[in-house]
Amino acid sequence: MNPEQIVFTIISHAGNARSYCFESLKHAKNGNFEEARKCVTKAGEEILEAHHAQTEMIQKEVQGEKQELSLLLAHAQDHLMNAMLARDLVKEMISMYEMILDKKN
User: Fold this and answer.
1) Could you give the percent of the chain with pLDDT greater than 90?
2) Within 13 Å of residue 33, how many CA atoms lie on the same side as its CB?
3) CATH number at residue 64
4) Are 66 and 11 in contact (CB under 8 A)?
5) Contact by Cβ (8 Å): 14, 50
6) 99 vs 21, 47, 93, CA distance in Å?
7) Which residues of the chain fall short of a pLDDT of 50?
8) Which of 13, 27, 52, 75 is catalytic?
9) Which end of the chain, N or C, is surrounded by fewer C-beta atoms within 10 Å?
10) Phi then psi dihedrals of residue 31, to 5 deg
11) From CA 101, how far away is CA 31, in angstroms rounded?
12) Structural domain boundaries, residue 74
C-alpha cells in the first residue's frame, strides 16, 4: 500500500471501531450485555486492522523508507488513539451498567 492508502485504512478501521463502541453502549444501556460485548470485540478487531496498517508504515520507515509526516497522518493517528480510548472506556461503562442493573434487581 502507498502511504495515502495506509492513512485512509487507519482512518476507516478506527472509525468503524469507534462506531462499534458506541453501538455497544446502546446495547449495554438496554441490558443486552452479550450484544454489547460482541460490539466491543468487533471494535477490537477493527483497531487491530488499523494497527496492522500503522505497523506497515512503521516497518517501511525502519527499512529506510522515510515517511512524510503529514496532517493526514496525524489525523489518522488521532482517530486510532480515540478509538482505542473509546474501547477502553466503553468496557468500563458496560461493567458499570451491569452493576447498576444488578443493584436495581
Assistant:
1) 80
2) 13
3) 1.20.58.80
4) no
5) yes
6) 19, 27, 10
7) none
8) 75
9) C
10) 80, 10
11) 7
12) 3-104
